[in-house]
Write a structure and sequence with these properties.
With about 200 residues, the protein is mainly alpha-helical. The protein has eight helices and no strands.
């Protein structure tokens, strides 16, 4: 990929920021949903991570829409900053989490040299975002929990959730946005059938 296609245009920054801010607000609401569902998963607490993937969508969506190095990292990081500023119950550490999570999706797109934006790449981006999220949680939030009964199932279910919700969900959102015409100034909009 040559240097001119790697450069961010003003519209790239604006759209990535809109995605990030919108998801920062969604994160704030999802934080409340997460807390409210604790009791529903009391039978097997690691299963709560089946809904974790919502927090990882902007990392994959940003990469699919913007298609430039840094888009996944930017969208996830800014979304986490917005969430923290809105009063996330987990405080400023969510910014570090956003950095880690965005890095996972970024690695998937970088592995294909920012040239593949099909479903398998998006699923890989979701999975790697889930993996980096799980690694962070493994050493920060869950370090005092049992390895076999909690941390390993938690990590595996986080990756599954991220693959389906963040990876598959971002493809669905990208296609839906492209079909409205709002992404016509982006390759994702011009390649509606290919996403």
């Amino acid at each position: 990929m040559n240097d001119t296609t790697n450069r961010w245009r003003t519209i790239d920054i604006v759209v990535a920021s809109v995605i990030a801010v919108a998801f920062g607000v969604i994160f704030w609401a999802w934080n409340l949903v997460w807390s409210a569902t604790d009791a529903a998963f009391a039978f097997f607490p690691p299963a709560q991570t089946l809904i974790y993937g919502v927090w990882l969508v902007p990392a994959v969506l940003g990469g699919l829409v913007i298609r430039k190095p840094g888009a996944s990292l930017y969208c996830e990081l800014v979304a986490s900053i917005v969430s923290a500023l809105l009063g996330s119950q987990w405080g400023g550490i969510t910014i570090v989490q956003g950095l880690m999570q965005g890095l996972g999706a970024e690695l998937a797109f970088a592995a294909f040299r920012y040239r593949s934006y099909r479903l398998p790449t998006a699923l890989l981006a979701g999975a790697l975002t889930g993996l980096t999220a799980a690694i962070f949680d493994f050493v920060y939030w869950n370090k005092a929990t049992d390895l076999v009964s909690y941390r390993i199932p938690y990590a595996l279910l986080t990756i599954v959730s991220a693959t389906v919700i963040a990876g598959g969900g971002a493809v669905f959102l990208t296609r839906s946005l492209a079909n409205t015409g709002v992404l016509d100034r982006f390759p994702a909009g011009r390649e509606r059938a290919a996403v």
